[in-house]
Amino acid sequence: MTQLIFQRGDIHWVEFPKKESQNKVHTVQEEHPAVIISNNKQNQFSSVLTVLPITLQLDKTYPFEVLINLDKPSKILLDQITTIDKVYVKKKITSLTEKELMAIARKLHITLALPCYQES
Q1: Is the domain covering 10-111 a CATH 3.40.47.10 domain?
Q2: Is it the case that residue 70 has pLDDT exceeding 70?
Q3: What is the DSSP string of 3-51?
Q4: Tens digit of each residue's pLDDT (9 = 90 or more) over 4-34
Q5: Is the distance from CB of 81 to CB of 107 less than 8 angstroms?
Q6: Residue 15 forms beta bridges with which residues?
Q7: Are strands 82-85 and 48-55 parallel, antiparallel or unpaired?
Q8: Domains of the chain: which residue ranges?
């Protein structure tokens, strides 16, 4: 069996585990596309990946979501950052453009309320 190579910006099908929840918080469950946002060194050596789920539900769009077009208009859910074992990551769908990755970076910065910094 060929081992998948995971790159930042790749979109794969991911089997998100079902979660039993007492509250009404909606999180992605079952199989959905997701974009890998962890860095490539981590993707190479770690057993887990950091991903953002993608949905086709466009009834509401929030400032912390990035619109993209897979086969249909879709949105990346930046408020549902998930770390998942690589065994749940399946077939690659496509890769994001640099422009789309930059949009994610900007909106993640806002979503997480990260302060601006400069490396010295």
Answers
A1: no
A2: yes
A3: PP---TTEEEEEEEPP---SS------EEEEEEE-S-HHHHHH-SEEEE
A4: 899 999 999 999 887 665 554 455 668 999 9
A5: no
A6: 31
A7: antiparallel
A8: 10-111
